[in-house]
Structures are given as C-alpha cells and as structure tokens.
Amino acid sequence: xxxxxxxxxxxxxxxxxxxxxxxxxxxxxxxxxxxxxxxxxxxxxxxxxxxxxxxxxxxxxxxxxxxxxxxxxxxxxxxxxxxxxxxxxxxxxxxxxxxxxxxxxxxxxxxxxxxxxxxxxxxxxxxxxxxxxxxxxxxxxxxxxxxxxxxxxxxxxxxxxxxxxxxxxxxxxxxxxxxxxxxxxxxxxxxxxxxxxxxxxxxxxxxxxxxxxxxxxxxxxxxxxxxxxxxxxxxxxxxxxxxxxxxxxxxxxxxxxxxxxxxxxxxxxxxxxxxxxxxxxxxxxxxxxxxxxxxxxxxxxxxxxxxxxxxxxxxxxxxxxxxxxxxxxxxxxxxxxxxxxxxxxxxx
Length: 348
Ligand SMILES: Nc1ncnc2c1ncn2[C@@H]1O[C@H](COP(=O)(O)OP(=O)(O)OP(=O)(O)O)[C@@H](O)[C@H]1O
Prior knowledge:
Elements: E1 4-13, E2 16-26, E3 31-35, H1 42-50, E4 57-62, E5 65-69, E6 72-73, E7 81-84, H2 96-101, H3 109-122, H4 138-151, E8 156-160, H5 168-184, E9 188-193, H6 196-202, E10 205-210, E11 213-218, H7 220-225, H8 230-236, E12 240-248, E13 251-254, E14 257-260, E15 272-277, E16 283-286, E17 292-299, E18 304-310, E19 313-319, E20 329-333, E21 340-343
Bound molecules: adenosine-5'-triphosphate.
C-alpha cells in the first residue's frame, strides 16, 4: 500500500478551483518531486496534505489513516508530518540544539539530548549546537530544519522549495547530502519545486502539475524520454519537433529522412504527426554534400550545442563532436529509439 495517497482531491480559493480531482501516490521510502510552473497549485496541495487547506472532494490518507476528506480534517499536529520551508522557519531566539529538540518535549531530558546529538551528527553540524540560527549559513540553517523535522520521525516529510534560498555554488552538494540522509533514514518525502534540474537531482519520481492536475508521473527518464504530451516534453527540456508521416509500423518519414522506432508505433500508416527529438538524439557528421549547415555553436567542455539549419528548420543539437565550425555542411541522422510522436495540430 502507498504510504501517502491523494485521491481525486479538489480545492478552491473563493470560486477558483486550484486542485481539480488530483490523484497522487507516494510509496514508502520514496522521494517524489511535485514539479510545475508558478501558480499551478503545488503549495496548495502541500497545504491540503498538512491540514491547512480544506478539500471539496476526495480524500488524503497516510497508509490507511484518513487525514482529510470533504467533512473531516485531522488537526495538523496530529498528522505525523514533517515540514521544511524555503525560508528555514527556525526559531531565531533558540539555539540550534533547542530548535532541533523543540518537537521532542515528550521525551526525557537525557533521551532528548541524545536524539539532538544524533541529529546534529546526521546533518554534519556536530559542535554547532550552541550557536543561534543567525550565526549559520543558509545551507547550515536548512540542515538544522531537516534535523528538526527528522528528530521526531515523521511518517512523511514535506519539503517546499527547500533549496531556493541556497547559494547556487553549494546547492547541488547540499541536495546530494540531504538526499543521502533521507535515503539512509528511509524517509518518505514530497519535494515541491519549479526547477526540473532540482527535481532530476533530488527525486526518485516526478509528478508534473498542470492547472491543478497531475499530467504525468514517472522517473525522470520516463518523463524526459517518453513525455505524454508536449507540455511535459517542453517543461523537462529542449526539444526539436519535426513533421513526420508514418511510413510503416516502426518508421516515419521526416526532413531527416526515414527514422526508425525501436518499438511499434501507435499511429497508423499515412498519419501526419510531430516527432520529438531531444538535442542529443540527433547525430551530426561533417559532409560536403550534407543537407544541413551549422549556424551557431556553443562550446561547453565535453560537448557543443549547435544550431543547425535544415531547409526551413532550425534544430538544436548536442554533440560530442566539438570541432565542427560555423558554416560547415553536415549530414544528420538519429539512431533507432522509442520514438515520441504527438498529433500534428496544424494538420488536425
Ligand atoms: N490565499 C489565496 N487566496 C486566493 N488565491 C490564492 C491563494 N493562495 C494561492 N492562490 C492562487 O491559487 C493558485 C495556486 O497557487 P499555489 O501557491 O498553490 O501555486 P504554486 O504552484 O505553489 O506556485 P509557486 O510556485 O509560485 O509557489 C494561484 O493562482 C494563486 O494565485
């Protein structure tokens, strides 16, 4: 059974529907990223899970325990959830140790001190227990809030844009460290972000939001390489779209020539579709008679990003061939892979 389940949940602000029959499950020990643009309802869903936002349909459960339904709202403090905020939300007048021990008042003093010491060690802040939050860096403050949330062993940890205020230079390392801690402690977590890079780096699975609904859930690879719709494809990264006519059960005719799918196509022969190719799915080869020309080039170390002109198309190509020059003619190809085809709206 899923650890957290959100079933057909709707919620409104005044008359405006912000969550629309939304369904989501998080498995035990899993880190799920809720990903989506600003205003799509991510924070509202977290608030509903925490018990700060009423719902008008559906239910929210942890295991078999009901947290919210249309006519029931378990008080926030009885939900067994931990919460991490963007602004750390530490008590400024309490020391680091007292912040971490804040939710442990039911424990005896010695046990509490022991748990606080374990948590300080876990988040690599041993020796800093007597400091106050303003004496710590942003990354260290976020470690304190992780320690505070994990100290009372929550059933599910909710993280609302926890890395947004962290300096870009240390963000990636902090994310990796916190991910390791959550995995080591087998914490079930929901992580809200509008950054696909953060979602890729931190989560096991992504759920992509669109106007109050989840449009697709899956591993980063599934959403990136097998997006269910153009919205998903575009949110997760750059892509090239080419007109494609279905030629056989696993081939399409495109401006690149015949492109082969490594699995059977869902579209019928003769149908006009749009083929999605990620920049790294197009291969370049220098060729004097090649039909395409390099128009822009960005060198990025191990690889180059090229803008390649092919008839009226401008294609973005990522290639490890870093020696190609502006104005050079090239041929283009793509290896057989599971092709992603979307309906061709202009011909529909
Ligand atoms: N208290 C409120 N009263 C009325 N409308 C609200 C309220 N809070 C949020 N909204 C609206 O509900 C919608 C969803 O907001 P929400 O904060 O859940 O989005 P979000 O995806 O978390 O966005 P962001 O990434 O910017 O935090 C937005 O259109 C927002 O303007």
